[in-house]
Known about the structure:
By secondary structure, the chain is α/β, with parallel strands linked by helices. Helix content is 29%, strand content 24%. The chain is built from 14 helices and 18 strands. The chain has helices spanning 10-20, 22-33, 82-88, 137-140, 148-156, 203-206, 212-223, 240-250, 262-270, 284-292, 306-314, 357-369, 388-396, 409-412, and strands at residues 42-49, 57-63, 70-80, 99-100, 104-112, 124-127, 166-167, 173-176, 186-190, 194-197, 230-234, 254-259, 275-278, 296-301, 316-324, 346-349, 379-383, 402-406. The strands form three sheets. Strands 3, 5, 6, 9, 10, 17 and 18 form a seven-stranded mixed sheet that branches. It is globular. It starts with 9 loop residues before the first helix and ends in a 9-residue tail after the last helix. Bound molecules: zinc ion (2 copies). The site of one zinc ion has 10 residues, from helix 4 and helix 5.
Amino acid sequence: MPATPSAETPAAAVPAAAAAVPAAAAAVQAAAAAVPAAAAGIEMRACVLREPGRPVAVERVHLDPPGPGEVLVRVAAAGVCHSDVHLADGRLGEGRWPMVLGHEGAGVVQAAGARVTGVAPGDHVVFCMVAPCGACRACRSGRPTLCEPAGTRSVAGRLRDGSSRLRGADGATLQHGLTVACFAEYAVVDGAAAIPIPDDLPLWQAALLGCGVVTGIGAVTAAGVRIGERVAVIGCGGVGLQVIAGARLAGAATIIAVDRRPEKLAAALRRGATHALDAGHGDAATEIVTMTGGGVDHAFEVVGTAGTIRAAWDALRPGGTAVVVGLAPAGVEVSLPAIEFLSEKSIIGSYYGSADPRESFPGLIELVRSGRLQLADVVSDLIELEDIDAAFQRLRRGQGSRSVVIIDPALAGAGNETRHA
Ligand SMILES: [Zn+2]
Ligand SMILES: [Zn+2]
C-alpha cells in the first residue's frame, strides 16, 4: 500500500483530533458510562442467523465480558457485505449457524481483558476479521491473512480460546460471525481484531475499511498494478468499487468497469473508471479485448461465479493476470482453456487484501484524510439493525452498493439521515 509519506502517525494524531471534536469525545464517554453491568455481561440486540433460507432477525442476546486478550467494543456502525448473505443462505458450508452476523464494522472500545496491548478503552477501532496468530507457517512467511488458526476459528465462529461469548435467550451458544459478530450493539473480539484509528474519521465510514476497502484496494496492491496499465473490474458492488478506487490510485490508465446495473456503472465512473460496460448486453470479455486492442493487464473478478471468473480470464492479454476477489459459494468450479497457459496468462486469488491489515490501515486512513480516497460515496443505504434482511434482499437482487447499519447514531457520526438508493 503506497502510504502517504508523513511524519504524523495516526496514533500521534489522536489527541489533537479528539480535542478538535469535543462532541464525539463526549459521546464516547457517555457510551462508556452506559455499559450495563459489564462484569456480568451485557444483554443486547443483535441480528441472528438461526437457519439458512429463513429471514435473519433481531433478537435479545447475551454477551459475556471479554476474557484475557479480548476487548469489548460498542459497535457504532457496520457494513452489510455479500459474505453475510452467503452465510445467511447457507452457501459457505454446513454448521455455520446459529450465528450473530456482521464482520465489517467500527466502534469504540469499552473494556479490555488482561494481556491486551495496543488498544485501550475509549479508542476508536475498526474490526479486522483476521486476527493472525503470529506463529503458524502462513504468519511466519508474511501471509497473515492466510493464518491457519484464524481460518479455523473463522469457520467455527469462535474466539481464540475456542469458545463463544454469545448466547441466545434460550441459553444456547451462538457463533461469532467471522469472529467479529458486529450486527449487534456490542461485540467481544480478539484484541488483535480491533485496530485503533484516529478519532476524526466518522465511524460509519471507517466501518468500510474492515472488509470492502482492505479487500478491494489490497487486491490491487497484491496484483502489482502499475502506472499506465489496463485494468478491468467485473462486478461493481461494495468491493468492486474499492478495486476501482485502488486501480485509480495505482495509476492504471484504463479502468473498465463491468456490471449489469446502470447505477453501479455510474458509481464506478464517479470512482475513477474510464469506461463502463453493461454486462447484460453481449460478451463482456470480447468487448474488453476489442476495446483494448488485445486485452487487459489485470482483470479483477469481484462477483464469485464461474461465468465471471471465466470472463476475467478471457479479458486478459497474453501475460495478463486474473485476480479472483469475489467469494464463490462452496462447490463452484471453473474451467479454463488450458492451451492459454502457453500465453503466460495467470490467475490468482486475493483474500482480505493479501497483506497484514494492521499495516494496511494507516496508509488507507491517510488516503481518506487527504481526500484521495472517498469512503462515503460507495454507501447507498444507511439502515437500522431491523433492516438487515431487507439489505440482504437488495444484495441478492444485485441492487445498491453498500448498506451501512447505524447502530449508535451518536458514535457513528451519521446523524439521522437514512438513504435508500
Ligand atoms: Zn465482507
Ligand atoms: Zn497464524
